[in-house]
Write a structure and sequence with these properties.
Low-confidence stretches of chain A: 1-6, 41-65, 85-92
Radius of gyration of chain B: 21 Å
Number of strands of chain A: 0
Low-confidence stretches of chain B: 1-20, 328-333, 335-343
Structural class of chain A: mainly alpha
Largest sheet of chain A: none
Helix content of chain A: over 70%
Number of strands of chain B: 0
Shape of chain B: globular
Shape of chain A: rod-shaped
Oligomer: heterodimer
Order of helices and strands of chain B: HHHHHHHHHHHHHHHH
Number of helices of chain B: 16
Largest sheet of chain B: none
Distance between the termini of chain B: 26 Å
Largest interface: A-B, 62 and 87 residues
Chain lengths: 92, 347
């Protein structure tokens, strides 16, 4: 009894509170992961840097043969490979 | 990482992006054109990392152009070669990371993996050599440095694999982990080193820009570790948060459930401490970049803002759960970081 009085938070309340903690923390983390995924797919992470790079790098690459090369080398379609890359982004 | 749905939806028509991403396109063409690549059983594992646009990686050498260096003083063809080599090196490292991280997935035959790895190394070397032709002594130094960076990376892979197999680390201080994170990204620094050869920089400038790069790389790793903590725990991958939370829980023989683990990471303050370290590393990188490497500044400011927002939100969530809103979180300082620098900077 004394122990219960010393701790005003009942075990069930604590469990419920910690479940809420986990839910909110996971929600916030998922929101951040989603934001990063969108940033990557739209290139917005580097958008502010593109102007600088474009002034330095040769901007007009001839990409016309790339998909043919890809088709020759593998049977994995490019869009699917790109999406898989975004899922496997353990190290930035 | 667990948010494939959004990227898949917003990624439709990605093949067309290569018309604009010259570096990525050149890199992909270079690799796919190599005779050894065609029909390689290992190629499927590499492609995601080769084809995924990564603006910061592809623009890396340009980002580190010193403020006082006019673009007209840089050979654009050489810089493009350096950027393409950097993109291939990046895909190579990411692919090897993925192989090391995915021990439960079927691997391509070892011979195919080695042959593809050798092809990538050769493509990288040839491009760097072409870009740096004529800078004899500096080029020799560059390739010596490249070998050292690859050795650092190999060491980081060995440590990660040992942890994944269940070997416990004697201890893992945050300072040690930052060094480990820098080594994980070590070969990605090569475009920066090549830029130094092309534009000619003093030893002091070289060290400052290398520090800026490595601080940024380790900050990115720590930040991502926060987002991936549950996935990393589940997959037995090494991060400071995972190792220290397990240690806090007494390294039990039977691994705690996901909720128990995450709750401990939050309430004992490891998430908070990890984000604080990422913030500190980003801020240090930014202070080096300001006035020196203008191409990096906006990116780093964004990363600092993002990290601080995440840290504040997570601290608020913990405080609201522990009834300490308006007060410092009781978990903000973990009982022990496992190292010898408790309470000190991660730098």
């Amino acid at each position: 009894m004394a122990r219960e009085n010393a701790n005003p938070v009942a075990p069930s309340q604590e469990r419920s509170r910690n479940a809420e903690l986990l839910r909110k923390a996971r929600e916030r983390t998922q929101a951040e992961l989603l934001k990063k995924a969108v940033d990557m797919s739209t290139g917005s992470q580097g958008a502010s840097l593109t102007a600088l790079a474009a002034a330095v790098l040769i901007p007009a690459a001839d990409a016309s043969g790339l998909l043919d090369l890809l088709a020759d080398a593998t049977d994995i379609p490019a869009p699917e490979a790109v999406q898989a890359g975004q899922r496997r982004r353990r190290r930035y | 990482m667990s948010s494939p749905e959004a990227s898949a939806t917003s990624n439709s028509g990605n093949a067309g992006r290569f018309e604009h991403d010259s570096v990525a396109a050149f890199a992909a063409k270079a690799v796919l054109s190599a005779p050894e690549t065609r029909g390689s059983e290992a190629l499927g594992g590499l492609l995601p990392f080769l084809l995924t646009p990564e603006p910061v990686v592809e623009e890396l050498p340009a980002l580190f152009l010193p403020a006082e260096t006019g673009k007209e003083h840089v050979d654009p063809g050489a810089l493009l070669e350096v950027a393409v080599a950097g993109k291939i090196a990046y895909a190579h490292v990411r692919w090897l990371d993925d192989l090391a991280d995915s021990l439960d997935r079927p691997l391509a035959p070892a011979g195919a993996i080695h042959r593809l790895s050798e092809t990538l190394s050769r493509e990288v070397h040839e491009r760097f050599a072409a870009a740096l032709r004529g800078y004899d002594e500096a080029t020799a130094d560059f390739f010596t440095s490249l070998a050292e960076l690859n050795a650092r990376y190999a060491t980081s892979l060995a440590i990660d694999c040992a942890f994944s197999r269940g070997q416990l680390l004697v201890r893992l201080s945050l300072e040690d982990y930052v060094e480990h994170a820098k080594s994980r990204a070590a070969p990605l620094r090569t475009p920066l080193d090549a830029l130094h050869v092309l534009i000619g920089v003093s030893e002091e400038e070289k060290q400052l820009s290398r520090s800026c790069f490595e601080l940024t790389a380790s900050a990115m790793q720590l930040y991502d570790d926060t987002l991936d903590v549950e996935e990393d725990y589940d997959d037995r991958r090494l991060s400071w948060i995972v190792a220290e939370t397990l240690r806090h829980l007494g390294n039990p023989d039977e691994r705690p459930g996901a909720d128990t683990f995450y709750e401990a990471a939050l309430l004992a303050g490891f998430i908070d401490r990890n984000l604080a370290a990422a913030d500190e590393l980003y801020a240090a990188a930014l202070s080096l970049a300001e006035g020196r490497f203008p191409g990096c500044v906006e990116f780093l400011r964004n990363e600092v803002r993002q990290t601080r927002a995440m840290k504040e939100d997570m601290a608020r969530i913990v405080s609201s759960a522990t009834g300490t809103e308006g007060h410092p979180s009781p978990g903000a300082t973990p009982p022990n970081d496992g190292g010898d620098r408790d309470g000190k900077s991660a730098l």
